[in-house]
Design a protein that fits this description.
Elements lengths: L18 E7 L13 H6 L9 H4 L7 H11 L2 H5 L8 E3 L23 E3 L9 E9 L12 E5 L8 E4 L10 E3 L7 E6 L6 E3 L9 E5 L4
Antiparallel strand pairs: 1-2, 1-4, 3-10, 4-8, 4-9, 5-6, 5-10, 7-8
Length: 219
């Protein structure tokens, strides 16, 4: 009798989720270009029309279903996928699930805090305001009530000195954002930013500095 060898199929690896670092530049929100390069033009095409991005809409109330739909529409703007003349493409950043060791820039790796992330000098246009928005899969925060109460940032070329500042008390940081689109991983996210230190007016000096961000306090 001929024995047919059995074939053991290995399971598909689980997808690796990452924190997404978005940067919306006011230089891309002018209503003067096509939707692919001008986020103001793009947001004007949202079927909900209640929030138009950070440049024109400020901080979104994600507890409002229509604003939340606008926010999900905002995430899919083509400029975030490719980068523009004024800003970077969205970055995918590791969120460690266990503590131990140091990251690329010598900072301690801590549980649930995304690792130190560099944005190279000259990535933005002088005179623009850039809003940095950190969108984190809820599963990487232990699927719990954990949130970042602060984000570490440094705009002066020093990765070891990422000063933490508040992500505010706005409701969006504790609101589940369920993304089901075709651009990013389909999962539930939490959104972190603030209207102060995580909105940067790009100066001439910034062109010679790398920017650094790092996960802050987890509460």
């Amino acid at each position: 009798m001929t024995m047919t060898p059995s074939i053991t199929q290995s399971a598909e690896p689980e997808p690796t989720l990452s924190m997404l670092l978005f940067a919306e530049s006011s230089g891309d929100a002018l209503f003067t270009g096509p939707a692919s390069t001008d986020i103001a033009t793009y947001m004007a095409g949202s079927p909900n029309g209640q929030w138009f991005g950070w440049t024109f809409g400020g901080e979104p109330d994600l507890t409002n279903a229509n604003v939340l739909a606008d926010f999900l529409y905002w995430m899919d703007w083509p400029g975030f996928q490719t980068g523009t003349a004024n800003s970077i493409a969205t970055l995918s950043v590791n969120v460690p699930q266990t503590a131990g060791g140091t990251d690329t820039y010598g900072n301690n790796i801590e549980q649930y805090k995304f690792v130190t992330t560099e944005i190279p000098a000259g990535s933005f246009t002088v005179g623009d305001n850039v809003q940095f928005v950190f969108i984190v899969p809820h599963s990487l925060l232990s699927n719990s009530t954990k949130i970042y109460s602060t984000i570490g940032y440094n705009y002066t070329n020093t990765p070891s000195d990422a000063v933490s500042d508040t992500t505010g008390t706005s409701s969006y940081r504790v609101t589940d954002v369920n993304y089901t689109g075709s651009v990013w991983d389909n999962t539930t996210y939490r959104v972190f930013t603030n209207a102060g230190t995580l909105n940067r007016n790009i100066s001439i000096g910034d062109n010679t500095n790398n920017f650094y961000f790092r996960g802050g306090d987890v509460i």
